Amino acid sequence: MVNMRKIAMIGCGFVGSASVFSLMQSGLFSEIVMIDANGARAEGEAMDISHGLPFAKPMNIYAGTYDDIVDCSIIIITAGANQKPGETRLDLVEKNVGIFKTIIPEIAKRNCEGLLLIVSNPVDILTYTAIKLSGFAPNRVIGSGTVLDTARLKYLLGEHLNVDNRSVHAFIIGEHGDSEVAAFSSATVSGVPLNTFCELKGHFHHEEATRKIYENVRDSAYQIIERKNATYYGIAMSVRRICECIIRNERSILPVSSLVQGEYGIEDICLSLPAIVGADGVEQIVPISLNEEELGKIHKSAEELRAVADKVLS
Description:
The chain is of the alpha/beta class. It has 2 domains: 3-143, Rossmann fold (3-Layer(aba) Sandwich), CATH 3.40.50.720; 147-313, L-2-Hydroxyisocaproate Dehydrogenase, Chain A, domain 2. Helix content is 43%, strand content 20%. It has 10 helices and 16 strands. The chain has helices at 14-26, 39-50, 93-108, 123-134, 147-161, 194-200, 206-218, 220-228, 233-247, 292-313, and strands at 3-10, 31-35, 60-63, 72-77, 115-118, 141-143, 168-169, 172-173, 181-182, 188-189, 192-193, 252-254, 257-261, 267-272, 275-278, 281-285. Strands 3-2-1-4-5-6 form a 6-stranded parallel beta sheet. Strands 7-10-11 form a 3-stranded antiparallel beta sheet. Helix 4 (123-134) crosses helix 10 (292-313). The radius of gyration is 19 Å and the shape is globular.
């Protein structure tokens, strides 16, 4: 039986540990099990995070094994090789698919009834890999997708317009990577079309401004990795947000990576589109309006992911 107050983190590097730290502060869970190929690392991270519990809510955070995941509501996977300076997310694919071929069977053979949340990169390929190897229903396997990219887009648009970024409604869709697409044509600021709001604020060079903002979003990870060798705080907050939607059954719309089966004419590949996320995972993909250029780009993104998936999973 699933314990909705228990989750597992597989992979206790920078992203996994930062995510557990964020989840500890959220108060959503009473039990977090941390699993890593390096057992001592998992123990050390669990100890360190647990020492902050007197300032948070009561919970049990500990290093465990795959046997501890059976009743988890969410099994989060951040395990994998890290992206290095100058390396794309897709450059990681063969190494991390190989790692998933050891992790996912361990989960599958324990008949877990919870959801899988894939965070490792390249997240779209690994989400697709997890579906194929686990035998889980596709709605139960979610990738963190472009939730972070979308947050970066909202942040940068808020800075550009000098407005609260929480009032910006816009999505990055497609691959979590170099072929991702900014859906500017459907973007609004509290219901006002983006270009109209820009003009209200005295910005009229829309094409140049949106291009620069898109490039900054797309290249954010590279810029951070160049400076500090890894990204982990932003994605940790994204993991927390996805978990909130699941545990509270919010049915919020997030651009998670999930199996696309017909939307925009795309079939049988995982990429990010806005989707209703709740206790059952991905309940429904929400096909937002795209202009002709954006539609062409989302098809190109899907084609690139399909080529990689066919290569590594054939």
